[in-house]
């Protein structure tokens, strides 16, 4: 269906109706997101701490909060850790997801259905439940992971405390997020693969293209739009892992070495009551997210135009 | 190696991957049915067998906080689903049946807003709600959830509305119906699957939400189910964990979600990666 047949013909005259229809949604967005956003931008340029909690008017400090951030070692540590965690986890997710999609495409119906049901169950598990399960799996005393690893000859994982060391803590967090997010990537890429027409592939085979060439020259380019969209989404989503990190920290350590941006902001704001600094960090997070999102939204709109 | 054996090997590999992937979910359900005394032994039980018990579920809900949390989750979810469906339906009709100045900006804003992380705003939302006395209230959290869920529900419903050809309405208008009547009699009945899918999406978001709930519902009496589950994890830091009860609690939280999720899954994938409409 072409874009123009969709209503443009019905409403030739100018009317206020569409504006009335979007007013409720816009009001809801202004209330829940717009107001906090504006407050946050203002507060990021103010000294807003405990004294202001008790009624003292906040002072304008210009870029002082951001200046304090730039010279704060802990902020940089958290920022670098978050970005690193995000990039590694997102790429791992997309890689595994693509491999599983290719696998689904290469096997019979029964095996594919088995794999799909298993992936759906993982995808459907709520984040709080999923994180709790992983805490139990990696429990140092009774966890099944330590038990199974310990069975391997020459490996001593008895009572290994996965959540007690930053590196293994983030390893567990990363595995958890990959486990939760791969199903979406696998299904999206698999849907893209099924759009690659059999005729084109057969024609290529007749023209002498081998298996690897068919992947590289035909399937690759055809699924590239889907790939770039899922990668962008993963990058955005893996920056917001407050739920997983908070729960893993509940079971592990309270130390700041285990913080990512979300838990760091929470600590600054809700625990230390330094709302000026918390707002400044929040704005950094929003800017990073919007920069990645902009590319995603552009892709999405371009695709939308093509498919309609 | 022949093509056939290659395919068989790949199928085997797929089944192994399936088993590994489903294992955490299986482990949750399994642990929730094995008596806690057995879970405390060094060797894990891979099947409940003779140690099958419902005792873990009883101890999970024993302290009474479960029903309060269930009530909170149900009330918040109902509000969010109802409000989002209403508002998003109107918005979706506007952007798929009308061309108007600002339409593209509205769509663009929706898509960008949908990407905003809760982590980037929750401190401001906390201040806003605490200044009007709405911390630990159903209303406060619902306001934030509605704003967070509306963008994607509009985008999703838009695909369904656009999927009903406007020509059908035009034909009805030729037969003498007004535009509003034509929409209500022709298009609206065809939107039922879209409303169900969007409603389930809103349900999942509100029911599972953890991040904003931690910030806006700090009081124990105002917990939603995910926060109630967190209580078990937090308690495990200070005393011997009753893993049977914790996994029973996880199962209680997860099972309704898994069922609803299976209903709506296909729509969510296509909505996120494309226009959610095959014209």
Overall description:
- By secondary structure, chain A is an all-alpha fold.
- Chain A has 13 helices and two strands, in the order αβαβααααααααααα.
- Chain A has a single domain (81-307), classed as MetI-like (MetI-like fold, Orthogonal Bundle).
- Chain A is 73% helix and 1% strand.
- A two-stranded antiparallel ribbon of chain A has the order 1-2.
- Chain A is globular.
- Chain B folds into two domains: 3-53, no CATH class; 64-273, MetI-like fold.
- Chain B is globular and about 75 Å long.
- The model of chain B is unreliable at 275-279 (pLDDT under 50).
- The chains are: A mainly alpha (308), B mainly alpha (279).
- Chains A and B meet through helix 1, helix 4, helix 5, helix 6 and helix 8 of A and helix 1, helix 4, helix 5, helix 6 and helix 7 of B.
What are the key terms here?
heterodimer; A: 308 residues; mainly alpha; MetI-like fold; two-stranded antiparallel ribbon; 13 helices; 2 strands; globular; disordered N terminus; B: 279 residues; 2 domains; disordered C terminus
Q: Any chance you could write out the topology, listing elements then pairs?
A:
The complex is a heterodimer of chains A (308) and B (279).
Chain A: H1 17-43, E1 46-47, H2 50-53, E2 59-60, H3 64-70, H4 73-106, H5 109-124, H6 127-137, H7 144-151, H8 166-194, H9 198-206, H10 211-237, H11 242-251, H12 261-271, H13 275-307
Antiparallel strand pairs in A: 1-2
Chain B: H1 3-33, H2 36-39, H3 55-60, H4 65-97, H5 103-115, H6 122-131, H7 138-163, H8 166-174, H9 179-190, H10 192-208, H11 211-216, H12 225-236, H13 243-273
Helix pairs in contact in B: 1-13, 4-7, 4-10, 5-7, 7-10, 8-9, 10-13, 12-13
Q: Care to give the gist of this entry?
A:
The complex is a heterodimer of chains A (308) and B (279). Chain A is mainly alpha-helical and 308 residues long.
State the assembly state of the protein chains. Answer: heterodimer
Computed over alpha carbons, the radius of gyration of chain A is 25 Å
Unreliable stretches of chain B? 275-279
Span of the ends, CA to CA of chain A: 6 Å
Order of helices and strands of chain A: HEHEHHHHHHHHHHH
Helix and strand composition category of chain A:
mainly alpha
- Proportion of beta-strand residues of chain A: under 5%
Largest sheet of chain A: 2 strands, antiparallel
- Please tell me the overall pLDDT of chain B: 88
Q: What is the helix content of chain A?
A: over 70%
**What is the element string of chain B, with H for helices and E for strands?**
HHHHHHHHHHHHH
CATH architecture of chain A: Orthogonal Bundle
Which structural class should the secondary elements of chain B be placed in? mainly alpha
- Report Rg of chain B: 24 Å
Annotated CATH architecture of the largest domain in chain B = Orthogonal Bundle
Can you say what the CATH homologous superfamily of chain A is? MetI-like
Number of helices of chain A: 13
Largest sheet of chain B: none
Tell me which protein chains meet in the greatest interface and how many residues each side has.
Answer: A-B, 111 and 114 residues
């Amino acid at each position: 269906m072409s874009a123009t047949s969709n209503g443009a013909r019905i409403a030739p005259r100018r009317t206020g109706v569409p504006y009335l229809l979007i007013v409720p949604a816009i009001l809801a967005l202004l209330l829940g997101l717009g107001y906090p956003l504006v407050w946050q931008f203002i507060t990021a340029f103010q000294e807003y701490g405990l004294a202001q909690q008790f009624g003292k008017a906040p002072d304008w400090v210009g870029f002082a909060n951001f200046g304090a951030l730039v010279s704060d070692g802990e902020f940089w540590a958290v920022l670098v850790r978050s970005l690193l965690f995000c990039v590694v986890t997102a790429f791992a997710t997309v890689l595994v997801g693509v491999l599983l999609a290719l696998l689904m495409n290469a096997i019979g119906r029964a095996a594919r259905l088995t794999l799909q049901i298993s992936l759906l169950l993982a995808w459907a598990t709520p984040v709080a439940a999923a994180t709790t399960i992983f805490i139990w799996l990696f429990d140092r005393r009774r966890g099944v992971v330590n038990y199974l690893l310990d069975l391997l000859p020459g490996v001593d994982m008895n009572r290994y405390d996965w959540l007690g060391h930053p590196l293994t803590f983030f390893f567990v967090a990363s595995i958890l997020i990959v486990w939760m997010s791969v199903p979406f990537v696998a299904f999206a890429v698999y849907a893209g693969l099924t759009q690659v027409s059999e005729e084109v592939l057969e024609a290529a085979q007749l023209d002498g293209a081998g298996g690897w060439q068919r992947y590289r020259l035909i399937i690759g380019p055809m699924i590239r739009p889907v790939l770039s969209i899922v990668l962008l989404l993963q990058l955005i989503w893996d920056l917001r892992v407050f739920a997983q990190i908070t729960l893993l920290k509940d079971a592990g350590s309270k130390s700041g070495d285990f913080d990512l941006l979300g838990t760091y902001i929470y600590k600054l704001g809700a625990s230390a009551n330094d709302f000026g600094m918390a707002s400044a960090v929040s704005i950094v997070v929003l800017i990073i997210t919007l920069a990645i999102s902009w590319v995603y939204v552009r892709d999405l709109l371009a695709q939308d135009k093509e498919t309609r | 190696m022949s093509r056939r054996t290659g395919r068989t090997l790949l199928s085997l590999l797929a089944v192994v991957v399936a088993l590994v992937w489903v294992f955490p979910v299986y482990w949750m359900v399994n642990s929730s049915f094995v008596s806690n005394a057995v879970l405390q032994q060094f060797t894990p039980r891979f099947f409940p067998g003779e140690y099958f018990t419902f005792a873990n579920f009883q101890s999970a809900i024993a302290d009474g906080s479960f029903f309060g949390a269930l009530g909170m989750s149900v009330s918040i979810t109902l509000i969010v689903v109802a409000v989002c469906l209403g508002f998003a339906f109107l918005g979706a009709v506007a952007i798929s049946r009308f061309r108007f100045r600002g339409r593209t900006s509205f769509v663009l804003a929706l898509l960008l807003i949908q990407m905003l992380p809760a982590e980037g705003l929750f401190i401001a939302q906390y201040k806003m709600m605490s200044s009007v006395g709405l911390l630990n209230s159903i209303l406060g959290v619902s306001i934030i959830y509605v704003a967070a869920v509306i963008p994607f529900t509009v985008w999703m419903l838009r695909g369904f509305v656009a999927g009903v050809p406007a020509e059908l309405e035009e034909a009805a208008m030729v037969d003498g119906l007004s535009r509003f009547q034509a929409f209500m009699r022709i298009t609206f009945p065809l939107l039922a699957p879209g409303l169900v899918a969007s409603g389930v999406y809103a349900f999942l978001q509100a029911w599972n939400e953890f991040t904003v709930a931690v910030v806006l519902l700090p009081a124990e009496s105002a917990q939603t189910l995910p926060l109630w589950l967190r209580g078990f994890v937090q308690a495990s830091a200070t005393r011997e964990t009753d893993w049977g009860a914790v996994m029973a609690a996880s199962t209680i939280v997860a099972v309704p979600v898994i069922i609803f999720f299976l209903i709506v899954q296909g729509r969510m994938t296509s909505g996120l990666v494309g226009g959610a409409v095959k014209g």
